[in-house]
Amino acid sequence: MVVTHFLNIFFMLLLFRSGIEVLSAFPKLYWRDDCPPGREWLRLTKKTFSADSRKPWSSLEEEESWSPVVALPGHKNLGLGRHWHFMTIQFWIVTGAVYISLVFATGYWHYLVPTHWSIVPNSIKAIGTYLHFQIPAKIPGQPFEPAQKLAYFMVIFLLAPFQIATGAAMSPSLLARFPRSGKLFGGKQGARTLHFLGMCAFGAFIVVHVFLVIVHGLPKEFAAIVLGNPNGNRRLALGLGLSGLFAILLFHVIITWFSLRYRRRTQRLLGFMVDPFERVLSRVFTSRQHFSRSDISAYHRVNGYPPAGEEYERMARNGFRDYRLSVGGLVANPMTLSLDQLRALGERRQITKHNCIQGWTAVAEWAGIPLERLMAEVRPARAARYIVFYAMDDKGLTEGEGRYGYFYGTIPLHLAANPQCILALDMNGAPLPVEHGAPLRLRVETQLGFKMVKWITGIELVADIADIGLGMGGWREDQQYYANGAGI
Ligand SMILES: Nc1nc2c(c(=O)[nH]1)N[C@H]1C(S)=C(S)[C@@H](COP(=O)(O)O)O[C@H]1N2
Ligand SMILES: [Mo]
After folding, report:
1. Less Cβ crowding at N or C end of the chain, within 10 Å?
2. Where is the Cytochrome b561 bacterial/Ni-hydrogenase domain (predicted)?
3. What residues flank ligand 1, with Cβ below 6 Å?
4. Mutation pick for ligand 1 pocket among 394, 444, 454 (CB with most ligand atoms within 8 Å)
5. Region for 400 from its dihedrals, namely left if φ exceeds 0, alpha if ψ lies in -120 to 50, beta otherwise
6. Residue 54 phi, psi dihedral angles, 5° rounding
7. Over the stretch 35-86, which tens digit does the pLDDT of each residue have?
8. What is the chain's alpha carbon radius of gyration, rounded to the nearest angstrom?
9. Which residues contact 250 (CB under 8 A, 6 or more apart)?
10. What separation, in Å, do the N-terminal and C-terminal C-alpha atoms of the chain show?
């Protein structure tokens, strides 16, 4: 239990810092999933944007660069922050499971799990005693006083599972598969808000906990914490304890530096732990979203500026009459299709919720061709494993920040069979507006928004993603170190 307590400090600090990094990508909290700009209940940024801002903006501009002192790794590295968060959560849950098994196997649970309601009034009395600057008496025969026992119980058996549940309730794959249960915490934004408040509760607990350990008498408590024995050698305990804390601090400094200095390597290394987990989610769950018209968001954020350049503008002015989609690569029947030919392939309509990796959501109605239908026309070869979608926006021209190249994205071929995987031509009953991807964009409803390439110009079937772009599976994966699997 001494070891699990130490590991818990170690992992919790990783979760806090990486969680703060994730928050910095969209430092606003909402209760409702339409999250209109300006209607957040908490805003941790000075920048304001509104639905009727005169200058068009893209949600990436809502990102904040927070210091590596609080965020892991800091400086607008959402992709890597998520990698750290999702890697750590797996170890944290295992540590928690080991701890709880030990607690029950050793009978220690008697000290942690209240068995009588009298714990509540007794805890209130104990808190009153603290407020009189005195230390309340322990429960007879037990190591803790009542308020302490109740607090530990709530943190271990209520707050920790609550954080896991609200965390899971933000996964687009889970939300797409179980849209109804997704409402349990008030949708994605409710879960995001509650997850944040849970973090604050953890933070408050830790502050009070550490303070009281000091008040109770540091050397004795240190012996109990480090050696598992309040009467153990105090010097040894203090030495070991402080070196442990120092080791944690040092580790954080090193990984923060490493993550900022070697971003690609961090993405790959942590990817070993995180990618399989994300891929399984995407494989197992199919989208079953059927929202109603009244759920459609009045304002749908935009991420990514439309293609800059005369060619695109000319096509748009023409109502995309000259647009052609080419589909090729590892297929038996390569094709070039006009919009009319595309429309003739059939239509599917769906009202679904968009989940941007940054954290915002919006509901819209999308209509277009089932991707499955197009695949049936071109007939992928046996060797084909991924579908690549090439876009018309050159990000070097529109976004800057040192990033460059045309946007593109890939999905594993099996996702095309997903019933709500479509090439959308219409949004909310009208042809796609320019900012949302005219004339053609992808919708894969179990995935995060960055997978849904807008302004598609070509589709290619390939055996491997390693030779496309910088090889990480998409423009945002290449340039922003996002994970290629996008189920969480
Ligand atoms: N071509 C292209 N497609 C793109 C992007 C982009 O920048 N360029 N951004 C992606 C991201 S991160 C998101 S969240 C969605 C946003 O879709 P929307 O602008 O229609 O809301 O588009 C995705 N598709
Ligand atoms: Mo996004």
Report:
1. N
2. 2-220
3. 300-304, 354, 356, 391, 393, 407, 436-437, 449-450, 452-455
4. 454
5. left
6. -75, -40
7. 998 899 999 998 888 777 767 889 999 999 999 999 999 999 999 999 999 9
8. 26
9. none
10. 31
